[in-house]
Hints:
Protein name: CC-NBS-LRR protein
InterPro entries: Apaf_helical, LRR_dom_sf, LRR_R13L1-DRL21, NB-ARC, P-loop_NTPase, WH-like_DNA-bd_sf, WHD_DRP
Number of helices: 24
GO molecular function: ADP binding
Keywords: Leucine-rich repeat, Plant defense, Repeat
Oligomer: single chain
Pfam families: LRR_R13L1-DRL21 (PF25019), NB-ARC (PF00931), WHD_DRP (PF23559)
Amino acid sequence: MCVIAMVGMGGIGKTTLAQLVYNDTRVKEHFNLEAWVCVSEEFDVFKVTKTILEAVTLSTCDIKDLNRLQVTLKEKLKGKKFLLVLDDVWNEDYVDWEVLRNSFKSGVQGSKVIVTTRNASVASVMRPIATHHLKQLPDEDCWSLFAKHAFDDSNSEAHLELEVIGRQIVKQCKGLPLAAKTIGALLRSKLDVDEWDKILKSELWDLSNDGGNILPALRLSYKYLPSPLKQCFAYCSIFPKDYIVKKDQLVLLWMAEGFLQQYKNKTMEEVGDEYFLNLVSRSLFQQSSSDKSHFIMHDLVNDLAKFVSGQFSFRLEGDYSHELVNKTRHLSYFKTRFDSSKKFEDLYKAKRLRTFLSLTLPPSSETFYLTTKFTHDLLPMLRCLRVLSLSHYSNMTDLPDSIGKIKHLRYLNLSFTAVKRLPDSICKLCNLQTLKLLGCRYLAVLPKDMWRLINLRHLDITETSIKEMPIQLGRLKCLHTLTTFIISKHSGSCIGELGKLSSLRGMLSILELQNVASPTDALNAGLKDKRYLEELVLEWSADTRVSESERTVLDSLQPHTNLKSLTMNYYSGKSIPDWVGHHSFSKITCMHLKNCKYCFFLPPLGQLPSLQDLSIVGFDGVVKVGTEFYCSGSSSINPFGALKVIRFDQMLKWKEWSSFASENEGGAFNHLEELYIQNFPELMGGLPVHFPSLIKLVIIECPQLVASLPRAPALWEMQLLHCNEILLKKLPSRMQKLKVGGFGALKSLPEGMMEGKTCLQELEFCDCSSLMSFPRSGIPSTLKTLKITNCRKLEFPMNQNFSSLERFFLIDSCDSLSTFPLDLFPKLYDIIIRGCRNLESLSIPKEYLHDLVTSQIQIHDCPNFVSFPKGGLPTPNLTWFWVTNCRILRSLPEKMHIFLTSLKYLRIEDCPEVESFPEGGLPSNLNLISILSCDKLIASCKGWGLQQLPSVRKLSISGKSEDVKSFPEEGFLPTNLTFLYISKFPAIESLNKKGLQHLTSLEQLWIQDCPKLKYMPDEGFPASLSFLRINECPLLKKSCQRKKGKEWHKIAHIDCVMIDEELIA
């Protein structure tokens, strides 16, 4: 691991330079893991390590112990060549950095850490191999940057007087790019000599530095913001440094706070867009290079926002909630897995709070839980709230009726919660502007008086279970966003209500269209007049039968030509109206036509000049894709000129695909990058012969397709599944990823199949039930990943060269294999074997004297597996060892404590004959142990010697012993344990206080499926315990009821208590 340092003063461009390096595709090719972390002033080894781990795993982390954090981070980095950027580092304590550096040493050679800092001393303690000192820009370069932002086309010649003043202003910027850019952006709209002279002579250039490291140029930029923009900018202080801000989301928050006013016939959203773009133009926000809808604040700009907002805004971080004051109006925080009442106990100080904003680190698959005390006890007290965001809390099933008393509420986000109903009182929130219910899949109905929300502008009910719209929805005249409209057969709002919503924009899905009473009703929806709609989904029921009237209905649903995306699903007409595919829809980039099973022809989609993504699915009546697909007879447009991705799927009668022109160049698809052809039992004719830009080709379930594969010189990835085996003889040579499978009758792979594949790195065979052998020519020497699935007759090729292989998966295959020779794989990191019926052992010859580099071994569902190599596994890098359902295995590898010195994770499950751990015990570095359904092993638990394992932090134990009445025995558990999971002890009645009281580091306790358990320890749990989860323990559930149960007083001090998925504390 090498460190590269970038040193320079704030605003000099360190972060910008690091971003250029980090986002460069040439750089990314050299690393298989990248992470970016903003460190900033308040350096704490624990906090920084946790932030790095979250950046690496893309999920939140609740570990509260530094050692555990480091162990976990090491494991995530182990065996990977990583690039880590530590941005804006301040700490120069050598000991702290050595502790942090220790976590990076598990990466492979070539890993890099880039450090940006303002202090050369900070760089030196990291012992960099290179230090780049960024200097201030020379005056002329600084002037050029300033001019680029101050003048159109960077041209100052038309404003020579301004140039004289501007060059003096540039000298005040002292060569700092951020200062030059910010001041240039400020003056762009002020091409007046007096205005420029005022900036030059401003006292802020000489102001004392009471704002910390805030540049005078940034203060000037803020000073000259229009008043409405000042409060919008200050509000952004609720976002942490390096947080990705989405423009549309921020505008809705500004609107809810009353920062936006309508004027000159512009909507508040349009005003908000202008405000935001104004801040961007002044360089107070920077657009993300990876996503144009994402924006980031420079850390110095974030400092400025925090400075000017003062005590009015507060970010709830760590243990600083006590700093909340009565003045606090806006609060934000990052969700953690369990947000208990303790986290919010100081909110009682801030009863005038206007913003309560929970943030999530994107992207996150984490499950979050919120204490019910917040919604039922604290929330009713926050009567001044305008913004309330409680998204992604999976245990939130309802809102209290008191929500209707928060009269000022304008923004409510309950997305991705388990809310089943909304209280009727929500309809009293007459000021509500935004209601987000995205992903509330248990929500089946909206309150019937929704029409009373007369100021509602945005209603998102995507991915809910709502069956019909409430009546009189057309009275919500302010609605801009209505993501979904469901047409009911008997009640609710009819489709004509949409015609009253003239301001709709963005995305609209209209579902259950078979319930439209008549084409006239459809016409009354007025889709053709909704010029701001960008995405439209039209969907009928899956069981709708063929109907001639549906064509007329669909004709009446023609949208405005500004549309960018169209999806049609389960349309039951025999033909598609002419507007679908008409060249006047010049802005459409995405189209999905699905399950139009009665249509015989495809519309002329080649006429759409901007179409980039196309899916055609379930057109059962189509026999031939011919010239009609490319264009209408009178069109001169080059068909599919912009198309990048096309998917054909489930067209049961399709037999032929005709090329656009007679020449063999396939000119209609010159920019196509991905082609998917799936589930076509009758397709026989050839494909278009030439795809010059094709990168990925997938052909699945096309047994009659025997023609040559298209020429695709750029092809990188290919999948051939359940096709004619003749295609295997014609594979392109430059591929890097290849998956073949479903060739049931194939006994051997074609001899030339692997020849010339000099770039192949990933190869997968699957579902070849008759396949018996590999090609004699062997596998390519470049291969790094090999996966074999459901090829039971395949003879494992012991004579092949596997010297380059790094990952190997053997799933339900190679029944003849009885011994797996580890010595054939000198570079293998990962071994995963599952369902190999006759595998008996892993083997290493006695004469093999080298250590293996393997870091992960998994063996699952191998009924005859009995042994590991005699003498032990020489795998000093092994970190993960997992054996499941090997029911005659009697012992684990010998000398684990000697050979497996890096082992962190041990999981043994459903191995009933394993009686004990090997002589000498377990490796001392173990961090996690799971012993589940191993009756004999659990019976000998007294001899496990867990007390001799100082690094064990997590223990899961599950058994069926009828003899255990109390658990755990005194002295059984290791002192440093932080997580304990107990499951399936049918006779256990109580938890033993003597076995738990010494666990002074225990943070989480999970108890599951112990039906007779009814008593907690007499003296309660260790004070360190912050989370208790109880599932399927009916007696305990009753005795631990909040404030009522007999055992409640023993657990009342615990931050989070969850019983059967309900967070009761």
